[in-house]
Amino acid sequence: MQIKLAKKYGFCFGVKRAIQIAEKTKNSITLGPLIHNPKEISRLEVKFGVRVEEDTQMIKNGEHVIIRTHGIPKGDLEYLKTKDVQITDATCPYVTKPQEIVEFMSKEGYQIIIFGDKTHPEVKGVMSYSTTQPIVVSSLEELKEAKIGKKIALVSQTTKQANNLLQIASYLITHCYEARIFNTICNATLDNQESARELSKEVDVMIVVGGKTSSNTKQLLNIALQNCTDSYLVEDENDLDMRWFEGKNICGITAGASTPDWIIDKVKEKIQSL
Amino acid sequence: MQIKLAKKYGFCFGVKRAIQIAEKTKNSITLGPLIHNPKEISRLEVKFGVRVEEDTQMIKNGEHVIIRTHGIPKGDLEYLKTKDVQITDATCPYVTKPQEIVEFMSKEGYQIIIFGDKTHPEVKGVMSYSTTQPIVVSSLEELKEAKIGKKIALVSQTTKQANNLLQIASYLITHCYEARIFNTICNATLDNQESARELSKEVDVMIVVGGKTSSNTKQLLNIALQNCTDSYLVEDENDLDMRWFEGKNICGITAGASTPDWIIDKVKEKIQSL
What we know:
The structure is a homodimer. By secondary structure, chain A is an alpha/beta fold. The first copy, chain A, is built from ten helices and twelve strands. Chain A has three domains: about 1-10 and about 185-270, Cobalt-precorrin-4 Transmethylase, domain 1 (3-Layer(aba) Sandwich); about 15-90, 3-Layer(aba) Sandwich (Rossmann fold); about 95-180, 4-hydroxy-3-methylbut-2-enyl diphosphate reductase, catalytic domain (Cobalt-precorrin-4 Transmethylase, domain 1). Chain A has helices spanning about 15-25, 40-50, 75-80, 95-105, 120-130, 140-145, 160-175, 185-200, 215-225, 260-270, and strands at about 1-5, 30, 50-55, 65, 85-90, 110-115, 135, 150-155, 180, 205-210, 230-235, 250-255. In chain A, strands 1-12-10-11 form a four-stranded parallel sheet, with helices on both faces. In chain A, helix 7 (about 160-175) links the parallel strand 8 and strand 9 (about 180). Chains A and B meet through helix 7 and strand 9 of A and helix 7 and strand 9 of B. Strand 9 of chain A pairs antiparallel with strand 9 (about 180) of chain B, so a sheet runs across the interface.
């Protein structure tokens, strides 16, 4: 089996930075998983004593809290600050940006529109910075149902696809007087997506390595499926199914922004051994 | 010959307003033609003594100057104000708006991008309000040649087509960090375009009545041609060619925003008499 890696794949700047912070801050707590990759979260717990806590109420005085890459709601951060805990912010700077934009623009009287998934931690965090009720839409169809004002500010979840953002933006431009559009899609995400798109055209089977709750990993799978119907998402080498490779010659591999190299290497080795 | 008029056609709000002003301000001068319709300009001269002057230098003290619907460059207006002339502003409020936006946004440090035709008086006027060098593009191809900054503000010539504005906007959103997009396309233009599009699907031959230098009239012709290859632009009934109607049953008529009803009526009568 010939293996081709995507030109760009795996860890982005924000994830690398967060993991370095976690490795340096032994025995700390992250509020929600630091990144969307359960295997890497386990490794941090086993090797560095970094535990995950879901609820701010459970954090005791004297503890050291790391803010996850996706950020947390403003209220949770404010609550933590009232406690006697040390806080280290590992929010990706590309996520801090839409938080700041949403706060400033809502104060300036712009109606906030967020293109993203309401249930995703990043979006929950960004929403919480709006001083007015933001509109969150994950598709153009949802936007068409919403009542929008004359002056809007649009931000995007960092891991969304640019062509979908443009659909949303085009609707707003033709339905508002002023559309203030902030392209907060992360370049690393775009680069990984572009590389996955190219590679998926050249291969017989495509493996996307990443967490099943990772938004950008799911996007990579969707993009791969557009060109290669034999595309599969695996969290690690144990998820590989030998039948996927029967009669195939070239296998492409890409990985989400929160997938560590050590997992990608194991997946590669197992496929190579076929 | 059955005749069908477009649902919406002809005079827009800004043109109606300008003509009312001109009729009330007898023996005045307009700097450039008040509207883009030579026949109506002649009528205003013959009946109300309203003359056209192309050069501010030619305007003598004591005269009454009307600013045309498309507006004039800021420098020309300032020069006029230094003279002993009375000024009445008939600039369409939908054109004043992009002038104001361009002035304010350029002062705020946004790079100004104008979607429009460099040689059109409206665009020349809007350009002149930018405190920095604006980029004027009439197509996506032209935009791709330009060096654009991180923060841009986009306005449109009022008579442009929305789908072309969206192409320009989409490029900017994916190439800038912040795109501040002002949809300055005039609704009357959009309504006339939409009506022309619908009507051109139902007829055998389509007549667009309007000035040959009128931007919105030319757009109507382009839209009509997309659905009806037998579409023609006429300034008045004398431009009609009988051969266009041979073997045809239904004729559609639309008219540019600066075409008066009295010209449309004459065109209609002549076609009806066939």
